[in-house]
Every structure is written in C-alpha cells, then in structure tokens.
Fold each of these.
Amino acid sequence: MKTRSILYILSLGISFAIDPLLFRYNTIYNLKTNTRFIIKGIAYQPKKGAPVGSLDPLADKVGCLRDVEIFKDLGINAIRVYEVDVTKNHDSCMKALSEAGIYVLIDLSTPEISVPRNNPYFDTYLLDHFKLKVDAFSIYDNILGFVAGNNVTVDINTVTASAFVKASIRGIKNYLKYKNINIPVGYSGLNNYDISSSSQRYFSCGSDPLETADFYGFIMRDDNVNSSKYRVNYNIYSYCPSFASEYGIENESGIDDINHVYNLKSSILSGGFLFEYSDNGNGYGIVDVNYGNSSINKLPLYASFKSLLSQVYISDDNVYPRPLSYYTYVRCEYPNPKWPIGSNIAPPPNSEFCNCIAKTFSCKLPPTFNQTDPNQFKILDKKISDLCTNLNCSEILSDAKSNFFGKLSGCTVDQKASYVLSLNFSKDNNADQQCTIVELNQTLVVNSSALNISSCDRIAGANVNVNSILEVDQDYISSYDPNNSNISSSRSINNGSYKHVLNTAEL
C-alpha cells in the first residue's frame, strides 16, 4: 500500500492548524477549545462552466480561492461537496479552506457510482472507487467526514438498498481503521414519515462500531409552508448512535423558516448545510458564479443567510465528551412492514475471491466489453436474463429481506455475467459456438485452462450464500484485509458512468 508521509504533506505547505474535532453520540466536540461544535455549513457544488465530465469545485483553484473569502464573510465553518475527481490536485483549495477554519464533508458516492436504490448491490468496483476518495482526501486535516450514500432509500420499496449502503459504511470504516485514520463515515437520507425512524435506527444499530454510521442526516419537508421566491433546502445532521427525537430538519420553504432550523434552544440540532451555495438554475443558491472565474454576483438570499448565521450562538462553557463505555449501543429492530430487512447487512465484497473466481470462467467477456455503454449492457443483460431461465443463477443474486447473498453477489458486473456464460458453456459440453453473444459483435474468450471453482473455497467468506450470514460474516470480518484491492491511490479509475447492473429482478 502506498501512502503519503507526513514529510511529503508538509512539503506541500499544507497546514495542520485547524482545530481537531471528536464525534461522540449526538454531539461534535472541539478538542482544542473544549466546546460544542455546531455545523454552520453550505452545500458547495458550482456547476456553471465546469469541464464536461468533471464536477470538482475543489480542483478549481481560482473558484475555490474566490469562494473561501465569501465563506469567511458569511461566517460558515463547513461545506459539503457532492462530487470530486480523485485524479485532480486539491492541495491549494484544501489548504485555503483549512486556514480559514472550514471543514469539508465529502460524498463518496455520486449519482453514477453508488449503491442503486432499485436492484441494489455493493461490489468490489464500488468499494475500490470509495477507497480512492478516501486515499485522495484523508491526507487533509479539515475533513469533517465521508458520506457513503445520499438519498438511496426513499420509500418502503427501496429499503433493501440500505443493507448495501450499510455494507459500504462498514467497508470504508474497516479501510480507515486499517490505515489508522480516524474520520467519521455516515449516511444522508431523504425523510419519509413511513420509514424515517426505522432508517435512522438501522444505520445506528448494532454492537460493532465498524458496522454503524457515525452520523445521519436527512430531510424533513414542510409542505404547509408557502414557498417564497427563493427556495431553501437545509440538511441537518445528528450523530449516531442516535434515535427517538433526534431528528434533523431540512426545509424547502422561505428564508424566514431557517430561523426555526437554527433555533439552538432545541436539543435535537447538531447543525447542518444550506442547499446550496451557487445558483445552478434550479431555484436555489445564494450567489452566481462560474468555474474558473473570479467574479461573483451575490443574490438576495445571501444577506438573509449571513444575518441568520450571525445570530447562531455557541456556548463558551467547557464541555467534555463522556467515555464510550458510558453509551449503550442501539439494538436493531426485527423485520416489520416498515423495515422488512430488520438488521440484515450485505457481506463485504471480497476482491481476492472475485479475482480468483474469474480464473475459473471457461467462457468470459472480452476486455473490449464496456459495461458503461448502454447498448452493450442492454444486450448483455437480455442474454444473461434469457440464460438464467434455464440455469441456476442464484450465486450472482442477493435478497436482503431473506438474508441471502450469492457467492458472486459482491463481484463486478462482467464477473457475474462471465460466471453465467461459463455455466451455459459447460452445460453444452464446452462447444465453442455456445460461447458467443451474436448481437454484441465481439468475440468472447474461451479459456481452456480454467481452474476448478473449488480452488477458491479456501478464501475466507467465499461461502456466503446461506441464511446464517452472521456466522459467516464474523469469520470473514476477522480475516478481512481491506487493502486487498488492486487499485491504489496512484491508479486512475474508469471515468465512465456505472449506472447499470444486471437486472436481477427478472432472473
């Protein structure tokens, strides 16, 4: 594993002067001042004029230095950034933010690369992508936390996706522990009155701190408030384990209603992020800016937001976090109509196992196959769906409700497809004409020296397709090497989208 040394970081001129924070229960503590830290933040994702295919405001040196001055004028202390490019350099921007006392909350997932809410999965590709963001940003002293998922479960029909989001949280927390890095990892969800309390309990519950979210943020919309000219979203975060009345509030209403969002007399608030900083043509925003341009136009909402922030009072009284032993863990609830997965969580995707199993394929997709090409994927998806009507494809499937996860459920799309193609190939006595997908117009690879699939059984956690997942998982966790990925921080990832997955709902 390659990591940046402290000497290397210091050689970049990166300051470590920002105050250290501690997340404990539902409170953030400033360990330098011994006071409670309240997030006074804003979502930061300027899009106007951004390079095609790359949304990364932290790589825009001109824009970032322009906006840091605005952040200082507003009096904010944190920003949330939804999309970044790990191949870009962020040193100048992160240094300027740190020197201004501004923390950064980074989303690990993006709309294109995330746990899908329908037919959900968490595979080695997603884990590697998330690791790359950890590698790129954990070197900075002002990282507030990592968000593993954003509005993935939105209703009762998408609850199962949370089992895979929680698996992603566990995967990244294991990776951070392996690297001896202490940065919180959490989840941000869309509030739905039917599932919100169960969702917050689910991400908070469990006796293993590596399997629970460190913070939880979500939206509560007040549809009874008349919308003003300028729309406002506010995302409030509470810190886990937390439940009961500790809800966050996000308003889509007039600016006046931020007053009750920032009512610090309420014990439920841990601060939050206004959505959003720049006007991206969606009716939100307090400024108008363009990528790479130093000019800025303050919108009418700017002054109102600044005024409200100036009224936020943080007590100077010294506060000290209680020890972890003081808190009891939140118990997971049993499956119920509002939360049918109970405490179920998907097993960790295992790169070593998936790479081993790929050597057992006798018929597999060629290197020229591009799963991010919609046409190629559509053809592959139909082929695999057709084959699985006559084959046992359970090893590539998963069902969080019944706690069933096939051996290859955490492997990549092309690995799952090649597994099914090999099943069909061997079924027809390895006849070359059966290792083909005519519509794909690509020659599939016949591997005459494929290994026996049993050669991969030695790998811990390989046999996960049983109902007693918990017993398997415990053995798996104890021997899990979160650094078994072939991708490191020095390797660029595929910049294409990853929005498709085999349509297992029809298999």
Amino acid sequence: MSKRIFELAVPKGNVSPLCEICGNKATTKCDICRVTHYCTQDHKLIDSISFHKKVCKKLADIRSEHSIPFSEADRIADAKALLQSKQDVLKLAETVSKKWLLERKAMNAYPSAMIAWNMSREMRSEDSSEVIYPTCLVSEMFLRLGDISAAEQYMVQASWISQKYDVLPHSILSKLYRIRGLVFMALKNWEQARTAFAEFAYAVASEYGIADVRLGIPYGLLGLSLLKFDNIDGAMANFHKMADKWLDNLLSQYEVTIMRAATETEMAADEEIQELEFQFMEAKIVFELMYEMVRNLEMNDVTDLINFKILCFQVLAEMREGRPQAVIVYKEEALATATRTKQDKAVPEKRIPVLMKILGGDYLYLWERKHNRPRTIATKYLERIKAINV
C-alpha cells in the first residue's frame, strides 16, 4: 500500500502510543478520555473538530482496562455493553465521515473514516463483508484528499473482500460499485468506470426499485462516463432520468411545504431521513458535474433542455437550503435557458404547474414577447396550466 495505516486503538502496555490521525509517534493525548493520542496539537484539534468530541466518553470506556467480573452473568453483561459501545461508535463514525465527505471536507473525514475501518475489522474480521463499506469510505476519503493511489488500494481491497462471497446484499454492492466508479473516473479509466456505474445503477434499482429517487445519482454518474465515449444520446438519456427524479422529489416537497434540510437530530433519529439527506447532498455534486460537462458541448435544443432541468433543480435546492440570493441567480439563468429551447418535456407533466409557479409564468411570457420567441417551452407550459385550471 502507498500508506501505512496504524490501528487507532492503543494496545495495552504499548509504551509508544501512535497518533490517531497519522500514525506517527504520539506526544500528547486527549485530556478527557486519556486513551486517544496525537503527535501534534494540530492533529489533536483536527480530531476534536471532526469527530472525537462525539465519542470521547465511549472510547474511554472501550479502550480502558476493565476489572474482571466475578460472575458469568456479569461477564456476559459487560461483553454485551462493550460490543454495543463499539457498534455505536462504528455507526456514528460511518455517518460522520460520509457527512464530511459530502460537505467536501475530506481532512475532517479522516479520523472518523479510519476509526470506522479499524473498528469494523476489530469487531468482525478483516475479510468480513461488513468491512466493505468502511473500506469504501477510507478509499473515498483518500480520493477527496487527492491521493488516488491510496484510494485505489483501498478500493481494490474492498473489491477483493467481495470476491469471497457468492452473494452480497445489494445495499453493500451499491456502495462498492459506486466507489469503484469514482476511483476509475479519477484514474480516467472510463471503460471500467462506465461498467461500475452501470452495476451501481442495477444494485440500487434492485434494492429500492426503479421509481426511487436514489436511482438518480447512478443515472447521473453513468451519464458522465458515457460522455467520455461521445455517446451523447446515452448520456443525455441518463441525465434526464436523474433530473426528472430529483425535480419530482423536490417539487413534491415544495407542494407539502417541507422545503428544508433535515436537522442533525432528525437525521440521527431516522435512518431513512439521513439517507435521503445524504442523497440530496450528493445529487448537488453530481448535478454540478453534469452542468459543467454539458456546457462544454455545443449549445442546442438538446443541451438547453438538460441545462434547464439542472437549473430548475438548483433553484429548488437553494430554496430548500434557505439562500434567496442564490435562488434569484439560478432562476434568471433557468428562464434565459427556457426561452432558447422549443422542446416540450422539460419536467414531469404533473409538476409543471408548481414549477411554473416557482419560476414565474408571467415573467416567462413577457420575456418571450420581448425577445420575439413564440411557441417556446414557456408558452407551451403556460397553455397547459391554463387548460388545467379550466
């Protein structure tokens, strides 16, 4: 491997504890738990900000020496309590590292990703299927830090573990294929990236069904890889699938007035809410990549149409996150794009009225008249809304 990874837990009796962050010889430790060590105050601060405060007391309990219980019942109870503490730390470490990665703060994800990886191997075995996801997280963390070689090493390790099983849950496979695609994309190995993203889409569809919004991200990533083969039609088809799913999802939220990001407490209490929040955060990243790549193509009705959808998503996303100034910027760009295309199917038809309410139907109509662009997408939408209202 390109990096030597040290265990985060300090073995009992070790006279040279290692840094929680980098694995170098430690010179200081947490003043509260007294069992977590660091080589510098900077690394101590990084861990404190990113993860340690959340698990300080639990790590003290896990890593400290315990007196031997007198009875068998007490030994069983203590073992169960210790296992539960480790499971709690592992679950929290996975969640926190994923959140930091989606917020594009990879260095902050380092401590939690590494502790998830070490804790999962300690609780199971190094080749357990349950180690695959933490290994994927470490791979992504190195990828975001720009160490593609280390990211590839961990991705290969996760893939190697998966080969030991004849059958794996689609939930695990989807995480594995996702990181495979991302690493291959960073390596510019577009053939394998395309295959991995296709497998990613299949795994997600098998787990959640083809109607689920979680299938949007695999579609978007697959479309990005197809563009590298000049398969514009295939790429656009996948981009539209992703855009339609997320526009439908956000417009549904708008209709029932829940256009806001979930709080950390809500995410911790409900795994479904947490998963969808993470999906939204990643969707924003993928939409940005799509928009950047589509803008490099020739401007025409085809590219204008997907750009219009992407910009509508951005409008709704900024509304959801409470940034009115950004909403205005994206709305103006979406309206300008709408007047350039004569395509008719920019969003799911049942959501057209509420989308036009958000963008402003009257403004679109006046814009068209000013620029002498009749029968564009905006005009057709306004006619549909009028017909529905009648």
Amino acid sequence: MVREVAESCVESLLTEIVSQYCNGIYANKPDLAARRIEAIGYQVGHQLSERYTMERPRFSDHLEAIKFICKDFWSELFKKQIDNLKTNHKGTFVLQDSKFRWLSRVSIAPSSANSGSIQDPSAMAESKEAQATGMYLYFPCGIIRGALSNLGIPCAVSADISNLPACKFT
C-alpha cells in the first residue's frame, strides 16, 4: 500500500515551519532558525531514503547514489527528475531543477535575487523577501543531505536561487 501526502499539505507545512522558526521561536536568530529547518529536512530525507532504498542493494559509488537522488528520489518527491546534473569529478555535484515546485509560487524583486545563495543567510541580499525565500531552501537542502547521509555519503548541501523558480543544489 502506497501512502502519499497531498503536495499542498507539504507546501503548507513548509510554510508554517519557516514561519514559526523565523518569526516566532528564533525571530532574532536567523542562523539558528536555518539550522533547525535544515535539521528537520535532514530527518525527512534520511527516513525517505531509507524507505525508497529498502529493496535495493547498497550503491557501489557516489555517482550511483547521486543518480538515484536525481532520478528516483526526486521523482518520488516532486513527480519529475532533476533537470541537470553536473560534477567536477572531485566530489562536487550540482543538481539543477529549472522549475523547483516548492518555489513555483514565490517571487522576489529582481534586485533582491542577485545574491541568492543560502550558504550564509546573512550574506543574502538585504531584502526581507529574498531572505525569506532563502529560508525555504534549508528544508530541501536538509532533505538532500539526509538522503545522501543515509546512503553513506557525508556532505554539505547549499542552494542557489538566482533565477526563480529554478534552483541549484550543490
């Protein structure tokens, strides 16, 4: 029996998580809010990866695991595969989704999107809307990191949103 959750429910839950951590619990501490949102995503990704790989043999190398994330894992989450995968062959992978579903209803002023990396939220554009959008990306970064961790690949994941709704995960 396959159990699924409506996409609108996931989007609403993500909105509430970001709102509660950014405007409530850690209103004056965006770094703590970001870490907590990412940690929730990590748990989700770890558990989903466990579920989706239960019937599979372990992956033999990093590239095989990344391909699983791009094809099967992403398809389960977003009903589509990653649009583009790039690597420098030194352990860095860039996953590009040209229409990232969780950002499809988000828009920010073009001048606010210039510095869209969420590696450090304080380094993001000064705009509140750009910072809020960046906070939404900690959750999927956590999901990817959790899934890869479960597959035996310790990593750091960051996102870039220089061209909404496109998103790059590194």
